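Is this the right way to post structure tokens for a design question? Let me know if I should format differently. Anyway, here goes:
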């Protein structure tokens, strides 16, 4: 997987394919909403499995009924790369319809 930094245009174009995701402070970010704290906590386990499979990890914030993710590629200098978009896409595949309140 490429670890070259993506251009601003590349990032903006790719974000159109990932509704709910944003580019903030050189990181891709997203907050998901759930019906309960337990459901949000359970999602952490699923995200962790994806992260282990990709050997690429996001910062995770577990809230009362929310799960926040923020990711960039540390090995590329803390910028957004293709690896970050792959992680975001994989999470989207298992969490469709979960929007933060």
């Amino acid at each position: 997987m490429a670890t070259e930094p993506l251009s601003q245009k590349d990032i903006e174009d790719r974000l159109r394919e990932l509704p709910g995701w944003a580019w903030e402070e050189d990181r891709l970010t997203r907050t998901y909403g759930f019906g309960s704290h337990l459901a949000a906590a359970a999602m952490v386990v699923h995200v962790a499995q994806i992260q282990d499979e990709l050997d690429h990890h996001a910062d995770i914030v577990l809230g009362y009924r929310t799960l926040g993710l923020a990711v960039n590629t540390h090995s590329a200098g803390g910028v957004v790369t293709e690896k970050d978009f792959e992680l975001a896409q994989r999470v989207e595949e298992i969490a469709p319809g979960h929007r933060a309140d």
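Format looks fine. Someone answered above. Worth noting: The two ends are 34 Å apart (CA to CA). Strands lie at 22-24, 27-33, 59-62, 66-71.
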